[in-house]
């Protein structure tokens, strides 16, 4: 083997330097004795993919018990990340879910989630519409709305988290290479060939964590992941009245003819000096054919839907946006699976050498998904139950729906 060829050989190549890719690199490199490379198409901490914006919702509660169990596993791993980097990342402002308690959404269902919290002994407080209005200042909520506050939930500091996994993966010796785009991933029974714009690498294992672009590099396999891609608005508003104690909230409402009618919002970020607040819709409409079709600017109608909701129900907020941006959401078409997480052995020959972690509301799992990907890539197995998310050919999810 030529010197240059051996230099391009790694035990593990991670494709995509977002939070999940960097967390994987950290979890793999910290074991020691492994050559780990991360390839990122743009710069690290870019705002062009699924991780744009300053905050994400942290929650323990899930309707699905197996996923709920995973948030409980993720919590001590977040604490470890915080203590290793000396920065608070989870801010427990509370997680308030309210609305129509029976409506089924991609986020879950209120009544089923309350039952799951009972079963798992996770504390929560049940609230009526009147109590939610009195306590948190909402107005005009339909009187049948109900919900709960789960106090351990709240907001995750996105940029702090990416900085943490970037720093730790580098500290443990992972090679982080920005501005190098992967064009193709070709597995075989002995390993994986990774072709970029610049060169060709060889790895024993590959972890694919390139978010909305996953199907691009799997082109030779026939774009096997069945996903919907949506460019969702992030809407920033000024507060008329800043009051401490407001939680993250998610409004579960019956869909309209036009969209899924779901909205969420954060209080001001505790780690920021700004009093601004961020809101967004979770509408699965106007799917993009390709991630590169994202415009970076939201369509007017969903923004209007958000600001109308704020004008009707949030008297403490000025409904005129002060800033608009977008985030690229990539969701499995089969909502029951929630994520694609597992090796690609069922999809292509040699696919057992490629671990995939893409799609879904995954930020809350950053340290755990990194550990699971490192386990799968380096040990071929993991102790966590991720069977629901296993990669199966499109249309054969194996999930009871
Ligand atoms: C509006 C919105 C709200 C959300 N809310 C929540 C929430 O409240 N809670 C939660 O847990 N999750 C939430 N999510 C989901 C969460 O943000 C994502 O799951 C998570 O940020 C994805 O991280 P990632 O590392 O997998 O992917 P990304 O951050 O998308 O990173 C992928 C990286 O791969 C790079 N890349 C792409 N193609 C290539 C290539 N060919 N070669 C090399 N590199 C490549 C990209 O440049 C990018 O940096 C939300 C998402 C959106 C859009």
Automatic annotation (TrEMBL):
<keyword id="KW-0285">Flavoprotein</keyword>
<protein>
    <submittedName>
        <fullName>N-methyltryptophan oxidase</fullName>
    </submittedName>
</protein>
<dbReference type="InterPro" id="IPR045170">
    <property type="entry name" value="MTOX"/>
</dbReference>
<dbReference type="Pfam" id="PF01266">
    <property type="entry name" value="DAO"/>
</dbReference>
<keyword id="KW-0274">FAD</keyword>
<dbReference type="InterPro" id="IPR036188">
    <property type="entry name" value="FAD/NAD-bd_sf"/>
</dbReference>
<feature type="domain" description="FAD dependent oxidoreductase">
    <location>
        <begin position="11"/>
        <end position="376"/>
    </location>
</feature>
<keyword id="KW-0560">Oxidoreductase</keyword>
<dbReference type="InterPro" id="IPR006076">
    <property type="entry name" value="FAD-dep_OxRdtase"/>
</dbReference>
């Amino acid at each position: 083997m030529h010197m240059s060829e051996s230099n391009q050989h790694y035990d593990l190549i991670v494709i995509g330097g977002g939070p999940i890719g960097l967390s994987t690199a950290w979890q793999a490199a910290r074991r020691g004795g492994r050559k780990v490379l991360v390839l990122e198409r743009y710069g690290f901490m870019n705002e062009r993919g699924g991780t744009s914006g300053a905050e994400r919702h942290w929650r323990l509660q899930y309707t699905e018990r197996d996923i709920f169990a995973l948030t409980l596993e993720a919590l001590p791993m977040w604490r470890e990340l915080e203590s290793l980097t000396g920065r608070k990342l989870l801010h427990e402002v509370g997680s308030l879910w309210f609305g129509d308690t029976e409506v089924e959404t991609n986020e879950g269902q209120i009544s089923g989630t309350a039952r799951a919290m009972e079963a798992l002994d996770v504390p929560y407080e049940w609230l009526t519409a009147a109590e939610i209005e009195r306590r948190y200042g909402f107005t005009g909520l339909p009187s049948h709305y109900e919900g709960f506050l789960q106090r351990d939930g709240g907001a995750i500091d996105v940029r702090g988290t990416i900085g943490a996994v970037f720093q730790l993966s580098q500290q443990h010796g992972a090679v982080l290479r920005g501005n190098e785009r992967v064009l193709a991933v070709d597995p075989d029974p002995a390993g994986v060939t990774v072709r970029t714009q610049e060169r060709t690498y060889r790895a024993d294992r590959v972890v694919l964590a390139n978010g909305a672009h996953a199907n691009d590099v799997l082109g030779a396999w026939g774009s096997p992941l069945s996903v919907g891609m949506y460019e969702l608005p992030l809407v920033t508003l000024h507060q008329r009245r800043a009051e401490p104690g407001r939680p993250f909230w998610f409004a579960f409402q019956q869909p309209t003819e036009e969209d899924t009618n779901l909205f969420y919002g954060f209080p001001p970020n505790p780690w920021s000096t700004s009093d601004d607040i961020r809101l967004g819709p979770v509408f699965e409409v106007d799917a993009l054919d390709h991630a590169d079709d994202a415009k970076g600017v939201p369509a007017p109608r969903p923004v209007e839907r958000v600001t109308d909701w704020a004008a009707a129900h949030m008297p403490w907020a000025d409904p005129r946006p002060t800033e608009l941006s977008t985030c690229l959401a990539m969701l499995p078409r089969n909502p029951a699976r929630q994520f694609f997480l597992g090796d690609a052995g069922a999809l292509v020959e040699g696919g057992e050498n490629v671990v995939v972690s893409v799609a879904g509301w995954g930020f809350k799992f950053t340290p755990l998904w990194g550990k699971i990907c490192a386990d799968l890539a380096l040990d071929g197995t993991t102790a966590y139950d991720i069977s629901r998310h296993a990669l199966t050919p499109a249309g054969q999810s194996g999930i009871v729906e």
